[in-house]
Design brief:
By secondary structure, the chain is an alpha+beta fold. It folds into three domains: 174 residues, Phosphorylase Kinase, domain 1 (2-Layer Sandwich), CATH 3.30.200.20; 183 residues, Transferase(Phosphotransferase), domain 1 (Orthogonal Bundle); 101 residues, no CATH class. 30% of the residues lie in helices and 18% in strands. The strands form six sheets. The protein has a six-stranded antiparallel β-sheet. It has a two-stranded antiparallel sheet with strand order 1-14. A two-stranded antiparallel sheet has the order 8-11. Strand 6 and strand 7 form a beta hairpin. The protein binds adenosine-5'-triphosphate (ATP). The site of adenosine-5'-triphosphate has 22 residues, from strand 3, strand 5 and strand 7. It catalyses: L-seryl-[protein] + ATP = O-phospho-L-seryl-[protein] + ADP + H(+); L-threonyl-[protein] + ATP = O-phospho-L-threonyl-[protein] + ADP + H(+).
């Protein structure tokens, strides 16, 4: 039986989840098992107090549909799940309700399938299936960590968990499906594997909000890299893979800050006046988080992780700097010829360097991007941007100037080679940088308006030439009468 056949065979047999015939070395175009270029995560030890380790022995189906959180009125997937469970005899979602369509990827822990609900097949889902029997106890604890973290998330840039099923020796989680693959694959489709500053600003801003949310819950992510940033059908991101996270206590604070606003009022003699205003900011950063495990991906490891002396929230802000660097330059800043030399480069860093070729045109915004990277890739976590007050400080960096953070969900994603964006009919998309409509949208607007005006009466035309001719016509007509 060939690979695709075996998937369809699976799709038709509800409870048969024996994937033995599905190989991971497939060459099938539709399966996005991580390319050899993608970097695997590393785990050396786990001696911190991890999330609770409930037993994973249930051999019967334990269907568990999460009614809260993640319930959003505008999420059609929830409506489909609700419809399926309403008709279910026990009011729960079971594997028999799902139709597996194809394998979309496989990782360290399990395989991910594109699937739909049998009777409501307008909504796509991703089903991650983990065969617990094939995992070591360490990997099993990762599966539990991921399931627990997933069940506590409720954010547009993080996965929504629709159901968690324990069937025989399989753990299955049903979540959002991202048809646009991951940022690593997208990056490889770009010329020189680089994205424009505008595109990097958009993706980095969304990742920043996802990390801010995780940190506000005391979750340190520890595996930030383009491979773990999936792209939804609307071009917005979804951070995935929570098996290396660790959780700590947080004490959220409201802090007052004086913000100086320039040019808000104009003074007759002194020109623009500076106005001071008090702003209250919410800061929820797990500054006391502490772990000794060396986990993550080599090129993204922070120096304190490499040294093994213990680390906290700062590892995510370091990795955030590496991410912005890689998206802009197509490679990571400390990459060496081997994993060992990469680790040596990180441990001995005296600051990040940018290689600028002679005569290279520097894109607008690049200087701000480099300044932000330098502030994030600071070896001492106490001096690293973000470590004390989290995303609140990073959002204020000039690289993110102009971003209206609460509106980012409605921003139109950047035009990037290989990114197919499904436009939402109901949502008004605004430009992802300035928050205003794009020139193309503006042109459409004026064209429509102009057309409308032409219908209503020629003398009101918006086009200057047209105005002249309308006036002439109008005069001619009048003179005839
Ligand atoms: N929601 C999703 N939508 C689309 N594709 C997905 C989704 N989740 C995962 N994938 C794909 O499936 C692959 C494996 O998923 P995932 O990384 O979650 O598995 P894993 O076993 O936890 O991997 P890892 O080795 O990173 O721990 C990924 O490469 C990704 O491209």
């Amino acid at each position: 039986m060939d690979q695709l056949e075996s998937i369809y065979y699976l799709a038709d047999s509800d409870l048969d989840l024996s994937f033995t015939s599905v190989t991971t070395t497939t060459t099938d175009r539709t399966v996005s098992a991580r390319s050899s270029l993608a970097r695997s995560s590393l785990t050396l030890s786990f001696n911190e107090s991890r999330l609770s380790t409930a037993s994973t022995t249930p051999s019967t189906a334990v269907p568990n549909v999460h009614h809260r959180p993640h319930r959003r009125h505008d999420n059609p997937n929830w409506a489909a799940v609700k419809a399926a469970t309403t008709l279910s005899s026990d009011g729960a979602l079971h594997l028999r309700h799902l139709k597996l369509l194809r394998l979309v990827g496989s990782g360290n822990l399990g395989r991910v399938f594109l699937c739909r609900l049998r009777d409501y097949d307008h909504a796509n889902f991703a089903l991650k299936v983990v065969d617990r029997d094939s995992l070591t106890s360490k990997k099993l604890s990762h599966v539990q960590t991921e399931a627990q973290i997933l069940s506590s998330l409720d954010h547009p840039f993080l996965p929504t968990l629709y159901a968690h099923l324990e069937v025989s020796h399989y753990t299955c989680v049903l979540m959002d499906y991202c048809p646009n693959g991951d940022l690593h694959a997208l990056l490889r489709k770009q010329p020189s594997s680089r994205l424009s500053v505008q595109a990097v600003r958009f993706f980095a801003a969304e990742v920043l909000l996802a990390l801010e949310y995780l940190h506000a819950q005391g979750i340190v992510y520890r595996d930030l890299k383009p491979e773990n940033i999936l792209i939804r059908d609307d071009g917005h991101i979804m951070l995935s893979d929570f098996d290396l996270c660790f959780r700590s206590d947080i004490s959220p604070k409201l802090e007052n800050r004086t913000r100086i606003k320039v040019g808000t009022t104009r003074h007759a003699c002194f020109g623009d006046r500076q106005r001071e205003e008090q702003v209250t900011e919410f800061v929820a950063e797990p500054t006391t988080a502490f772990s000794r495990s060396c986990v993550g991906t080599h090129e993204y490891l922070a120096p304190e992780l490499v040294s093994g002396n213990g680390h906290g929230n700062g590892v995510d802000w370091w990795a955030f700097g590496v991410l912005i660097y890689e998206l802009l330059h197509g490679t990571t800043p400390f990459k060496g010829g081997s994993k060992e030399s990469t680790l040596r480069n990180i441990a001995s860093t005296k600051g990040v360097r940018f290689h600028v070729a002679e005569g290279e045109r520097v894109e607008p915004g690049m200087a701000d991007a480099r300044d932000l990277i330098e502030k994030l890739l600071v070896k001492d976590p106490r001096r690293r941007l973000g470590c004390a007050r989290g995303a609140t400080d990073i959002k204020r960096h000039p690289f993110f100037n102009g971003i209206k953070w609460p509106l980012i969900r409605t921003y139109r994603p950047p035009e990037v080679r290989g990114l197919a964006v499904k436009r939402s009919k109901s949502k008004a998309h605004v430009s992802h940088v300035t928050g205003v409509s794009s020139p193309r949208r503006r042109r459409c607007f004026w064209k429509k308006l102009s057309h409308l005006m032409r219908i209503k009466g020629s003398k009101y035309s918006l086009n200057s030439n047209y105005n002249y001719y309308s006036y002439v016509n109008y005069k001619r007509n009048r003179d005839c009468h």
